[in-house]
Each structure stands twice: as C-alpha cells, then as structure tokens.
Amino acid sequence: GITRHYKFNIVTRDITRLCSSKPILTVNGRFPGPTLSAREGDNVLVKVVNHVKYNVTIHWHGIRQLRTGWADGPAYIAQCPIQPGQSYVYNFTLTGQRGTLWYHAHILWLRATVHGAIVIKPKLNVPYPFPKPYKEVVVVLAEWWKADTEAVINQAMQTGGAPNVSDAHTINGHPGPLSTCASSSLDGFKLQVQKGKTYLLRIVNAALNEDLFFKIAGHKLIVVEVDAVYTKPFATDTVVITPGQTTNVLLTADKSTGRYLVTASPFMDTMVVEVDNRTATATLHYENSLTTSAITTVSIPPRNATPVATAFADSIRSLNSRSFPADVPRGAIDHSLLFTIGIGINPCATCVNGSRVVGAINNVSFVMPTTSLLEAHFFKKKGVFTLDFPGKPLVEFNYTGSGPANLQTMTGTRLYRLAYNSTVQLVLQDTGIIAPESHPIHLHGYNFFVVGKGLGNYNPKTSPLKFNLVDPIERNTIAVPSGGWAAIRFRADNPGVWFMHCHFEVHTTWGLKMAFVVDNGKGPNESLLPPPADLPKC
Ligand code: C2O
C-alpha cells in the first residue's frame, strides 16, 4: 500500500435547511463531510485541526486499528480530546479490510454533523466478487435538528427525560423534495443514472438515534456488503440499517426513463419514544428524462415494521465461510459472556424530574473518566478504572416480553479484561427495562461474527444448538432484536482498550456503554504500539 495524507479542518459553517439557517460543525465546511478514499493495505494519515470552541475527536468507525488504538478516537477512552486550536494526526493502516466504513466525531453529540464516508477499494488488480459497477455513489443518511444539538441533549440531561427527536432525516445532507420547506421537486440529492447500467451505492447510516428503512421506487437493490464485509448477494426492496452500519447495494437502472423517489424513513420498534414519521427523500433520475417528469412514488414501511427488519437481518450471510468461529468447539470458548442491555430510571437529586433515564449493561451504567483509559492502561496509572465489569448480569432477570425487568443500575468505570488471542462469545440480551427496543451495539477494534439471534430470553442450553457457524456475517455493529438476544464471537487479537456501546447516541449518553481491555501477547507483533508524540493531553 501507499501512504495517503488528509487534512480535516473542523470548522463552523452556516447551513440552511428546513427554511432556517444555523451554524454547524463540519469537516472542511461540508455536510456530510468529504469522503476519505484509500485502498486496502494503505497507510492513512489524517491531520485533524480543531478550529471550533468544542473539544473534538474523530473515530474511524469499523477500521480495526490493529495495535494502533491511539488512532481509534473515542474521547476519554482512546485519547484525550483535541482542544480548540490544537491538532492531532490519526495514523493507521487499512489491514485486511475493503468496503464502505465511515468516520464521525466521537465526543458529545458532535457527530450529528461531523461525519463522512470512508471508501476502501480492494488492492490494485483485485476485483470485486460481483460484476464491476459502472459508477459508485456514496449515500450518507443522517438527521437534521433546527435546534443546536448540544442544547438538545443538555436540556434532556437537566430534566432527566428523553431529548427531542430531530426535525428531519437527510440523504446526502438534504431532507429532500418532499420535505416541508422544499421549493421544488428538484430539491435534494439527485442520483442520475443511465438506462441499463449498474451502480454500487455505498449507504451509511450516520443518524444519531434512528434505525432507517432505505428504498428506491421501482427498483430492486442487491445487497453485496455490510460493514466492509462481502455478503452472499440477495435482492431486497428495502434496506434496513442502524446507526453505525454501512450497506453496499447494486442498483441496476432497468427502466428506460423517468424519475423515481428515494426514501429513508425511520424504523422504531418501541412505543416509548416520541412517534417519528419523518421521511427523507431524494430522486433517482434517468438521463434524458425531463426534470419535470412525474416522480414515481414508493410505499414506505410503517415505522414499526419489525418483520421487514427481521427478514432483512436474516438474509445477511457472509460470502465466504471462515475457519473461525467454527473451529472453536462449544465448551472451548475462553470467555462466555452474557450482557443485558437496556434503559432504566434512576433517582436523580439534581434533575428537574427527580429521576433520570439511564442506560446500562449488566446493571452497570458506565461513567466516563476525565482522562484517557488507553493511556491509563498503557502507563499503568491507578485509580482511573476498575477491572470488575461483570461477565453476567448483577441482578437476575427473566424477561417476559412486557417489562420492566432488571431495573437496578449501579455506576462505575468498569472494564472487562481479555487475554491476548482468547476467544469470546458474547450474548447481548435486551431486557426491555422500560419497553423492548432494538439496540445497535458497536464494538471498537474488532469485527465479530453474528452466530445467532432470537426472541425472548437466551437459553444457554438450547439457543446455541441453532447457531450458524458456517457462514455467519462478520460486522462491527449489530441490531440486537427488540425483546430478544444476539450472540457474537470474536478473537481478542487486538491489544488495547476497546469501547463497546449502543450506537443510538442518546443511549450512549445515558450510560449504555462499557470497554474491554485486551492484554498484549508475548510475540513480537502482539503488543499495543507506543503512543504518538502528538497525542493530545487532557
Ligand atoms: Cu461509530 Cu464508538 O462509534
């Protein structure tokens, strides 16, 4: 590979959406940010310069960062933030990965507008495992708030309740031609296509808090990759994508003319949050079609269309069968963990409501430290974290589908320690503390295999009998079924401190997060590298 240099200036810029203008944080003045393009094997250096009043970090979501945890980005986990006026060079190598990933700010709620796609092409002369597309198009889905997003979450934390939902969803930065303030059917993102050609769409869900359905009127989509891992191709009308996930689809322009609606609409399988029916729109436009031609519309799945999401998730299989995890016999897993995930309510003396919503894993609501966990680990600094994160729930639970269950939460900066190269099976169980809800759980530093999922309580005796050890998909963010469980496996071959959290930003803020410490191995290339000289200080 070669070395590629990027410069990301974090700058404020006034942007007008939904008939009003507000200053937002951007990468190089763009919303969404510029696409970072490279090839598998390349070394990437991104100099991030902070020109705004907030502390900033950038996370390269899904990039494995083998031994380079210093470049991973989550604030106070992997680094101290880049302070106003300062800069930091993220230096990492794209090892064994090709496909679509993305980057985003990883502090406060700044990722609302500070995000963009990462496109990793295969090594030179290595073809895709599908016919070469005529063109490739990045499609970033996100949300737009009329209010300042920091004000939105700060206000929610003061009252103890849930924050306001966004005012619109966006496709490549725009709410689209059917949004309230659109001036014409030409507004928003336009995907221009030529009859008969095939396009590769690289779809990213950068929304803060919403799973999304993505559709294109009159056209099938062939899924070929998720989270930068090739899938067995399958056709679908609807792509279902959680915050954090990426999905590549092939789109063949098999009509001859006309304009077709593109939609990104919310999927919400819980009734506890405010009803959200806002749909972002864009247009697919055949070349040589009049821009005034009528737009063919599409039927949008109801926002609680769980069967659509389940069918989509069940269709995702890895293109290749790998030796891991099938080569680890049952019973030979080093760490067999069960983590309950959910949202509860704790007393809060300082909150206006007298109580506050909390998120927890195994009854522990994670408390952010004020210095970097990775530094504390590397320099053996005492008193920053404890290594007593529980491997199973602290409080017995029996989730019956109607909640509440397993309400008690305690706080702490607790980490779970893994020996180098140990094998891990982690069952993520939604305990539906307030109400069942699907949580998109993201693990830093790893891809994991999704070996099983189901509804109700995970049963350690019977559930594993149905595991898929043949072609389970490998990914970095998994939607744990609402009122159900997902089982993942990975090998702890990347030493460092690795964050795991719900990718609904509000749930992370509430504490639905934890971190693993992975020890160094004994071999020459089995240790976390030392920190770079320009690593920011707290
Ligand atoms: Cu994309 Cu820790 O996040």
Automatic annotation (TrEMBL):
Catalytic activity as recorded in UniProt: 4 hydroquinone + O2 = 4 benzosemiquinone + 2 H2O
One Pfam family, short name: Cu-oxidase_3
GO terms assigned for molecular function: copper ion binding; hydroquinone:oxygen oxidoreductase activity
Location within or outside the cell: Secreted, Extracellular space, Apoplast
Details of cofactor binding: Binds 4 Cu cations per monomer.
InterPro entries for this protein: Cu-oxidase-like_N, Cu-oxidase_2nd, Cu-oxidase_C, Cu-oxidase_fam, Cu_oxidase_CS, Cu_oxidase_Cu_BS, Cupredoxin, CuRO_1_LCC
A GO cellular component annotation in the UniProt record: apoplast
Recorded coiled-coil stretches: none
GO biological process, one term: lignin catabolic process
Catalytic activity, EC: 1.10.3.2
Keywords linked to the UniProt accession: Apoplast, Copper, Lignin degradation, Metal-binding, Oxidoreductase, Repeat, Secreted
Domain Plastocyanin-like: 12-123, 136-289, 394-521
Location (main, coarse): secreted
Cofactor (UniProt): Cu cation
Known role: Lignin degradation and detoxification of lignin-derived products.
Similarity-based family: Belongs to the multicopper oxidase family.
Annotated protein name in UniProt: Laccase
